[in-house]
Design brief:
The chain is mostly helical and 390 residues long. Helices cover 77% and strands 3% of the residues. A hairpin with a 3-residue loop joins strand 3 and strand 4.
Length: 390
Amino acid sequence: MDDPVFTARLQFALTAGIHFLFVALTLGLVTMVALLQTRAAFSRDELHARMVRFWGGLYVINYAVGVVTGLVMEFQFGMNWTGLLKLTGEVFGVPLALETIGAFFIESTFLGLWIFGWDRFSRWAHLAMIWVVALTAYASAFFILVANGWLKNPVGYVMEDGHARLTDFTAILTNPTALLAFGHVVCAAFLTAGLFMAAVSAHHLWRKTAETEFFRRSLRIGMLTVILAVFPAAAFGGTQFGLVPENERAPELSALARSGETLMTTSWSLMFFLSWAFLVKFVFRPGRFGRVFLFLTMAALPLPYLAMISGWVFREVSRQPWAVQGLLRTEDAVSPLGPGAAQASFAAFVSLFAVLAAVNFWLLFRQARRGPGQGADAAPETVPLPVPTF
């Protein structure tokens, strides 16, 4: 920890990794909520409307805390990575600015309208709002991965007066390292949200809840989402191996990355076997979930998170010693901090993120355990997202 470069790298790895866990659940869950609300809007089915309320409440909790982690994480670029911004800010900063000024502001605005607009808009206007939220969430994730993809494969720029200058924005947007990573992250988000929905539902069925039909349907929706996402996630991930530069394949540079690869593939394999077990049960014994299957579903909840974190380690650690592949070394990208300042920054940021992660887990656990309530007569402690009048 006496090395400021190592401290800055470790700080960013921990805080970015924690933030990424929020993003994955948010991205997948908002899509599932939008689809549930679409079904409710067309069918006027009370059960689906209540599912929108319950799962939408959990989505809002995760989104709200995740926003705080994202805003705090942005400060690290100005504090710990001035070398990166000085050399490449005119290129690297463009997609980050589009994510913040464009996608994020639109997403948060329409999410506020969705939360407080149940009784004030028609069901079609309200449905349109959640779809705007979902689409801008994808746009936000895309721009972040465009910035990250440029670090691995810098394109569309020239060097002038010691600074990178953007010359081809289209090349950045169509960068294969960004596009494949975006597809991979979207599939990972569906795996996370699907298994989250399935695990929460399995918990209530294990407790023999009175809301049996509610959570049976939710479990089926969650596991079917996992089945649909598990193969594309592997396909997008495997395709990226062809884009790995030669220096990232050297054993002496990628031993940490290979550990991440092993954990990632192991977690994916376990999710694959669980999804096939569910498919067999769905075909031969639909609607009947034994306690062994419910226990395995609950126990599998950490798997997508382990796969994402280890996959991110595999992707990022292997790029060392480069902050920008072939252009800027990590030691030159870090701000000129002394050991004391680097350690103070590490302690402050990591402690804050740990607290936020703990608060998010507690809020999600508490709300998920309470269940959906009873529609319009739900208990006061449920998330105040009233069932819309269709």
